Amino acid sequence: MKSDVKNKDSEAYKVKRELAIKAYNLGCVIFSHDTKQVYTPREFLESDEVVTVQKLGMQDYHNFTLHYAKYAVAKKLEELRQAHLDFDAFMVKMLDAFQLNPQEPKTKKP
Description:
With 110 residues, this protein is of the alpha+beta class. It is built from 3 helices and 5 strands, in the order H-E-E-H-E-E-E-H. It has a domain at 2-69.
């Protein structure tokens, strides 16, 4: 099935192209729930992602979500901020656990 997503005559490619066009027209990026990747519409078409649609009642549920680019940037920025906080906490824990202190740079004696 994955080989079909790049075949422009396949149904899988047509579904993927339809989603990419919708995202482009709305000024959105495409978030994959399966791989947790964010794609521009062009990147999405070139990817190996496969669109799956589940119908529950009158609703269609896809494995992709469209996000406005501003939201995607804000979300990535928040993830970066959280990663920085996690790293800072990790470093404090390591420094405390092993009683490590930053060393002064050694100076050469004349």
